[in-house]
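Format notes (please read before filing issues)

Several people have asked whether sequences and structure tokens are stored in separate files. They are not. Every record keeps both together, in the order shown below: the sequence lines, then the token lines. Line labels are part of the format and must not be stripped during preprocessing.
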Amino acid sequence: MENIGPSSYNRMPFDKLYVKIKCTMCSSTKLYKNSGHHDPRNIYKWKGCPYCDHEGLQLIEAAQSTIIQYILQIDEEAYERIARAREESIDK
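Then the structure lines:
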């Protein structure tokens, strides 16, 4: 069985694409009061949302439709760079 330590647990896989989206739990306000997530030393002071980062964004796995929409909206030069990089990685 593989050892899952702190260093290997926090790494993201290379075969998936992730996108940052607006937090669905707090709407990027960073104030998530529904869970009772508060400062135990001061029960009337609420901590930030436990589901998003300091920018109010969540990291989720991108769906194929999201990837396709992104590729369709980029300019021709960026598309060509992606295509060249893909061809080079296939040739190796």
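For reference, the curators noted about this record: Residues 15-91 form one domain. The CA atoms of residues 84 and 90 lie 10 Å apart.
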